[in-house]
Amino acid sequence: MAENILLGALRRYEFYSYCSTFIKTLYDTVTQDLYGDIHWEWSYSNNNTYAQPKSWNTGKIGVANLGTITAKNIKDPSMFFTICMNSTSYNYGNDNGYGAMSKNYVLRTGLRNNGDSVVPDLFTNLGAVSETPLHTMDSNSVHGYDYRSTNTAVNVYLKWSVFITENYIFLYGEPQSNLNVAYPFRMYIGRIQPFEEEDPLIANDNVGIFSHFPHGLIDNDDELKYRTGRGYMRASRNGTPNALYHFATSSQVPSPGVGGRFFISPFYVWHETEGARGEFHGIRTAVLKDASKYPDGSILDLGDERYYVFHAFDQAHPATNQQFYATNGTAYAGQPYFFDSPLLLGGGQRVLLFEIEKEV
User: Fold this and answer.
1) What string of DSSP letters covers 23-43?
2) Which residues of 258-291 are buried (b: 16+ CB within 10 A; e: fewer)?
3) What DSSP letter does each residue of 64-113 carry, written as one string?
4) How many CA atoms does the CB half-sphere of 31 hold within 13 Å?
5) Is 136 exposed, middle or buried (0-12, 13-18, 19+ CB in 10 A)?
6) Which residues is 175 bridged to in the sheet?
7) Residue 189: what pLDDT?
8) 124, 176, 273, 353 — which has fewest CB within 10 A?
9) Over the stretch 127-182, which tens digit does the pLDDT of each residue have?
10) DSSP strand E in the chain: where?
11) pLDDT value at position 57?
């Protein structure tokens, strides 16, 4: 255990884990006696049939379920998220004669509370578009034709930072190994703050899951499908369930910090037909020209607003599409997306800013 911080309603947790142990370590971290989460009710299972799909072309070989957790919001039980770690599998031949190849570690997600049955909403409506890889694969690993039983999944070792409030859960992973195929992991799970009042019928469905690897089917001829951040919402403004939304910031210019000038950008949530719907709740980003004045873990006090400062790991996006195998057996292509651009105009340090709610 590296560190746990209590800062009013904001919780920060840090830990290290391999992909295969991430779910259990996360659960153990957020349910500690002293530093336990006060906003969400967590459950854990390592034997969940709903979180264990079959290999895509056989009914005999299963895909490993490496732990499933659910998080139910204490104030609003309809805010209910499921996260499951799977090792995807590709099986040569329907007769299982050649064995299965384990390709990728992926997080599968869901965001519906099924009531007393507590059936995780995984792989039911969205399928593979709800999956996020913890590493990608090169072409030789994705496409193998020698029919040997091999394991090519990379069990990356990551340093995790988890931020939790009553409105969201934010996961941030920095790979400590296999840097040739592993990129910084980012996932926002929670409520979207709307720009304008919404229809009461769908207002409470304004929650979503957004990660660094674009969710959804990939179209290599459309940059919006593979070179932008994208996640999915419980319902769109016209009531469409599991609607895909993009997210983006507008912050590349460093904040001088002189005279209180800080260029702070929200994470805008945008739909192709609706336009901008809202933003991540309480999380923003900026580039600090002189980050030594605001080290990681410090407080940025702007009078009306106070932020907890987190130094984000800067890494350039890969130059070409990266591939990963999903649990449906399909190799998806896309580019990990962290911010508008890894290029910071004028240098500086990228930071994430977590709003600290005022005490009443």
Assistant:
1) HHHHHHHHT-TTT--SSEEEE
2) eeeebbbbbbbbbbeeeebbbbbbbbbbbbbbeb
3) EEEEEEEEEESS-TT-EEEEEEEEEEEESSTT-TT-EEEEEEEEEEE---
4) 13
5) buried
6) 158
7) 96
8) 273
9) 566 788 888 875 555 444 554 545 567 889 999 999 999 999 999 999 998 888 88
10) 3-7, 10-18, 40-45, 64-73, 80-91, 100-110, 131-133, 157-164, 168-175, 185-194, 207-211, 229-235, 241-248, 265-271, 275-288, 299-301, 306-311, 322-325, 331-334, 349-355
11) 42
Burial class (CB in 10 A: 0-12, 13-18, 19+), 95: exposed
Structure token pair of residue 173: 């992973």
Closest CA to 214 of 121, 321, 286: 321
Q: In 184-325, where does DSSP find H-type helix? A: 200-203
Amino acid at site 259: G
- Residues paired with residue 319 on neighbouring β-strands, in sequence order: none
Residue tagged 């264990």 (tokens): 52
Distances (CA, A) of 345 to 7, 83, 350, 351: 32, 36, 11, 14
Phi, psi of 139 (to 5 degrees): -65, -35
360 residues of the chain, pLDDT tens digit each: 445 666 778 999 999 999 999 999 999 999 987 778 889 999 998 877 666 655 444 454 556 778 889 999 999 998 999 898 888 766 555 555 555 566 788 888 888 877 666 556 664 444 566 788 888 875 555 444 554 545 567 889 999 999 999 999 999 999 998 888 888 899 999 999 999 888 888 888 999 999 888 876 666 666 666 677 888 888 888 888 888 898 888 777 788 877 778 889 999 999 888 888 999 999 999 988 888 889 999 999 887 889 999 998 766 667 777 778 777 777 777 777 776 666 677 778 889 999 987 654
As to burial, measured by CB atoms within 10 angstroms (0-12 exposed, 13-18 middle, 19+ buried), residue 195 is middle
Whole-angstrom Cα distance, residue 198 to residue 277?
10
H-state helical runs in the chain: 22-30, 139-142, 200-203
**Residue that is written with structure tokens 């499951």 in the block:** 84
pLDDT of the residue at 129: 66
